């Protein structure tokens, strides 16, 4: 599906014109968006726009890393958006020339609709040309990263708050999922950051001073997103280690209680076993109070063992 | 709430003048602080001061990373202070022009009161202009980081000293909390450090040599804070590992004692069980001294097991 | 075995000509591939082509790191291909001069056949000369890395999806194998990346602007491969840690169930032991309902212990 | 306490002259050391020497990071020495001007006595001026780091040698102490290294070529100290991991032996328990050889269990 | 012991001449090797060669880090060789001037004999001068690193292959030893690499283009050695983690089998205990088939427990 927008030399914004209208050169700037393309639409990249074959190859074949390439007459950007459900990166290809922007992408991308809306709304920016249109697109693409990262961060803050509470038990599987999501996000955000840095500092992208401030604003966002991803990954590592140690100490505490019970009863059971033997000649058996004495001895043994454990501090060892 | 201070061309300091007075241009330099702003006060940023829309957006919307941007007629700083209780970063926006400083922040910030006091006190600095006023503000902001980091460092030194003592048991949850606090601090301190570095080395911030020494002093502080945060994070990792190994070896020592008890008694209990069987034909049962012999054998077994354990060095294995 | 291809001054492509034909200088450019060389063919490097002795030494002796060296009249590249089965790196030596490419390698390499095919097919590129032929070779070498890395990545994604499922048990040995494969891949991919970077930015390799775009395309691939290898290594570490914690918590859950069973029965067995003693004077033994009372007490003890465990939350502790 | 030394214009070294003598300008160079200063002596920094207020602030207040600042007429160094007992860093402030060195420090520092001695001894260096005096001081400060780092390194080498021996049991607490000491040392050594690097490469410190060799020699030492600290920290991590795994495998071996004993006896005890039951109708009890048969069965069970364990390789599992 | 070699102005190589012959200046270049020096030979460094005192100090006192210093009339290199048995670094000091090389070392070094041999053999290189002689020495020093690193790498590859096999049990102590050896190697190889890099890129070392290729060849080797050391250290970490998890899961499997045995028998033993009690009124005891019924119940309990374990999947849990 192809969507178009452009500004004519008589200061009007025209929506959804035909590609043929471009040839009449009546546009100050225009943006052609090729989304979910048919085979015929794919071919337009070379037949109609005459982009560089390497750029077209990057559009059509597997996911590229975010980057910018400069060819005669156009710069070629590869940007990433995220599929909000799977957090898989998706590729948005963007060509910028003197007076045009062309975007090309296989999955539908709502970021582009938002950019189009903002362009239509801000009449005062209409005279800024193609690079400013490109700015709106990149800005919306990067803005869409924030809810994803904030969601992870909020979730981690939640976990962090609950972590010390005794009743909360964190599944380490969740933490692993978060870590792998952050890894995936990082693989897009860091190259996007470096890409915008190169755009800001390259002599080949002829950014005007006014545009620089706007791309600088995007760079800020990417710096912050990069920081957040990195420190959230460190936080997940801390949470995982902390939770594993909590689990293991809780587990140990229980094992110790259970083992203590066994340890107290085993010698007593042995004594009972001794007096359950059937030897003919076991003089104690006949004594009057021997049964009660043995019970008393058993009690003394049990109590002394517990006292010794308490003296050794084993009971408060794993209290918290 | 708006607070103002400024120096008139006739060498006086005036406090809390009206914004309208500025227009009459009687000030060598002035500082306007907009704190906990009302909606009307927020609007002043654009309607009265005419700051760049991107800078105003950064003031009004979510927390930015510490940074400096240069626009026509003013530089725009985003600084972080810390909420001393939650250790959450809070945003202080600072605009510096030729002869003015404007600060804008949502939460109240005592650092600004301290900066104001110092400005009033140091009469000899009054002629240094707006950038020196900005220095006082940034200096107070960074000075306020120290008590927070020192508190964590002192606490860690405390823990470190107690760690080897036998009676001290550290909750790993505390260590995790410290680590996450240090992570949070780092997210502010490192970008603040880089920000001051850029201020010192940028050609756009026209720092005089005298001012450079003062901003260099702040940079020293941030370098030291950065070092402290990093090495304290490493220390917490060491403490955590050390404590986990202490816990686990203490736990193991106890389990081993308990298990040893069981192991000694289990064969003896078996023997008792054998002579508790009710077979008609068990010749040993009738022998005169068999009971005592069996008791003796049990004793010998128990003693030999303990002796073997001792010989194998199991008893001193987990001594400390 | 020697294979040749070249373009004569009258615009033809000639395949498999004799080395002697070169001397007659009828070639615009030519490529000589020396694969699985005999001793005589090895000697050609010095006797026929007169390459630098250090470059020849690098061809003949042990595996070099990917690199480029510049000598009078030729640049010398060491490239790595992978043995697809063992993932061992194999060395491809490549000499480029004004009008020639010479490749030298001990194992057979199908990447070279593919490069040759593409050269023959793309008639429009025939006039681009030796450096473009070199591009085709390097491109095919790097393209062949992708299936290897993608295979590992797909496998890891598979593991990641199954990881939280209860019935899936991952052998940590597999993860270790993947990690060591990734280590091996990294040892080739990172130096290859740096090598292409140097080629792109060196003044000594006189790349034309058109060729730069092509080598830049290879550089993109290597950047992406480098990212994939690094983040997949991090992912394996996460998977390993996650799986170890899953294993250990499953194991702990089972141990706890088993230990709980023991703990409940051990005091009961002790009581049974007590009433199995053979003392003459054990008044309870004669009472009418004492057996049933004791059975009841045993039941009460067992139930209270289980109730206490439940109250303490031990049963749901390791549920998930 | 103030100590002075200087060289007069008539080529003499004068010790412990009065500060007032300086004003008469009879010195080619002089060094004033202010150690453990009284309040009056502290004031000299501003009243007598007129150093920059920021430098004086750094002298008087809390520990600074090692650094160099350049002010009009003097450079200001902050150096660290170590308290040899606590390994705490201590601050040595050093001012260098055209013809003077001033040192200021709160704790006593024997390094300064050594520097003074060397200056007095080396008559041929007397004409080199203030910067060479500063070199002697910095050199002695850095030389004093070596015994501290060597002591840790020797201790670690010792541990490493003993580690595999069976009788040696390392307290992990010691390793933790070493790690935290190394962390503390690193916090001084790395900034000291960077400081000397800046001195060597700065245009502001007007080092002559001859002096450069001498400061370069200090830089060598700091590079080596930095390497040693870093690799010793890695070594401690390795030792800790190795020791933990040795501990845990020793512990496991013992637990397994103990558990094996229990496992062999528990079924036997059960059998004994069965024939200890008091049912009236238990035909086996009356048979002539049933007791001996049961004993034999018990023996067979025990032996088969042990044989199965041996067949499964459990006995040699934890041998080493 | 002093060994000499040099080339006279009439194109001859002279071996083992006297130091006094040098003064007559008849040499185009010469190399003096001072190995295992006597006190008198040590003094030659200053009395005969007049090297810089800082360089002489570095020769005579403790082990330096690999480095290069430039003094008037000579460059001074500190190189490391390895003691092949202990893997301890040993210091080789090398002075290079316009027409001389002087080496100085305390332990004997076979690398120098090899360098001398190669010099004598390669008559065509005789006219290249002192720097080429230095190249031969450095080359032989670095070549000698390879067998050491290859030995470790081969050993690790061996371990890696055996790791998944069930019968192979790796001592973690060995892995620790390898790690500490790699640490030691790294402490030499990385500074050696940086040293050669500085030599290649420094303006002070006046390397001719031809020599650059040769030193570049050494740099290649050091890059590769550095890579190998780093990735082998990562591999040892992986092996250690993998082995620890294998050990622990094997151990856990065994513990679980043992615990399962106990868990099955403990309730049965309890039941036997109950019917071993000596109460007068235990009606079941008198019933005709109660003994057989109880045996049957015991069997049912045991079988149901095992069935439940199997249903829960515990038996295949730790199969692999
Ligand atoms: Mg694509
Ligand atoms: Mg935005
Ligand atoms: Mg949040
Ligand atoms: Mg907490
Ligand atoms: Mg996910
Ligand atoms: Mg912004
Ligand atoms: Mg804001
Ligand atoms: Mg301050
Ligand atoms: Mg402190
Ligand atoms: Mg301690
Ligand atoms: Mg907190
Ligand atoms: Mg300061
Ligand atoms: Mg080779
Ligand atoms: Mg390709
Ligand atoms: Mg995939
Ligand atoms: Mg999962
Ligand atoms: Mg493999
Ligand atoms: Mg491409
Ligand atoms: Mg101080
Ligand atoms: Mg020294
Ligand atoms: Mg040593
Ligand atoms: Mg060892
Ligand atoms: Mg200490
Ligand atoms: Mg030295
Ligand atoms: Mg030496
Ligand atoms: Mg070599
Ligand atoms: Mg090998
Ligand atoms: Mg394997
Ligand atoms: Mg060793
Ligand atoms: Mg080579
Ligand atoms: Mg355990």
UniProtKB/TrEMBL annotation, chains A, B, C, D, E:
Please state what the protein is called: Magnesium transport protein CorA
Under the cellular component aspect of Gene Ontology, which terms does the record hold? plasma membrane
Asked if the record carries the keyword Transport, the reply is yes
- Give any GO molecular function from the UniProt entry: cobalt ion transmembrane transporter activity
Protein's membrane topology: Multi-pass membrane protein
Keywords on this record?
A: Cell membrane, Ion transport, Magnesium, Membrane, Transmembrane, Transmembrane helix, Transport
Gene source species: Psychrobacillus lasiicapitis
Per the UniProt record, one Pfam family is CorA
SUPFAM superfamilies documented for this protein: CorA soluble domain-like, Magnesium transport protein CorA, transmembrane region
Domain of life, source organism: Bacteria
Q: What does this protein do?
A: Mediates influx of magnesium ions.
| Family (UniProt) | Belongs to the CorA metal ion transporter (MIT) (TC 1.A.35) family.
CDD domains for the chain: TmCorA-like_u2
Q: Which Gene3D superfamilies match?
A: CorA soluble domain-like, Magnesium transport protein CorA, transmembrane region
